[in-house]
Amino acid sequence: MAKPSTRQGLIDYCLRKLGAPVLEINVADDQIDDLVDDALQLFNERHFDGVERMYLKYKITKEDIDRGQAKNADGVGIVTTTATSTNISGYGTTTSSWYETSNFLQVPDSVVGVEKIFKFDSSTISGGMFSIKYQLFLNDLYQFNSVNLLQYAMTKSYLEDIDFLLTTDKQIRFNKRQDRLYLDIDWGAETEGDWLILDCYRALDPTSFTQVYNDSFLKLYVTALIKRQWGQNLSKFKGVKLPGGIEMNGTEILQQAESELDSLRGRMFSEYELPPYDFIG
Length: 281
Known about the structure:
Largest sheet: 3 strands, antiparallel
Oligomer: single chain
Number of strands: 8
């Protein structure tokens, strides 16, 4: 199987690259499973082919609105964190209380990044029968040559600027280690049954998309990881003589694997990873 399509097929391929079954690869099955998991995690988090861009929709419930508006008796957030610090002059301590609300939605574990939440086009500028956009087409574009397209484009840009100032985008915060999407919005203005559309990135599931196991970088990386583990296992028997005077040299295998992994990580940064975006202003 030169093109592995299963997890075990990938493992068998990597072991053959290391010399099996001619050589005995002294690595336990549990160790190999852990290494494959580590390689898949790196592939999903750093490789541009390890994720897919998705548009997930979520229906707002009454529980979400109530949780986002939750307040205690003082009218502030219900989650409390207390911090105590010593006064600079040494005359006692100062205690500060911090509050926050549970204004988040639980997202699937496979989501590794969220770009934005789409704003529904329901403004009077471009939504509905009595919108400015509809009236422009109704009154001025009855003939294709009746309106200068440059003037129309400039007018639309101006109207979009007005809409941007009057209807701001929803502010969000997301961390993939929490699986929480925080929405800094007025939950009281939301309506039960409305939909949110998330522009996000989701990790590819190799059980559904089996071509992941045949990725060229993943095969090389798993092979190097198994080789490093092999060298670490054999290095514990340094100096032990086998029958016939043969001596196992796990240290050399370990050094070769470390060099290969460093080279592969460099290729990940330069060839397979998306460059970071610049933030200006």
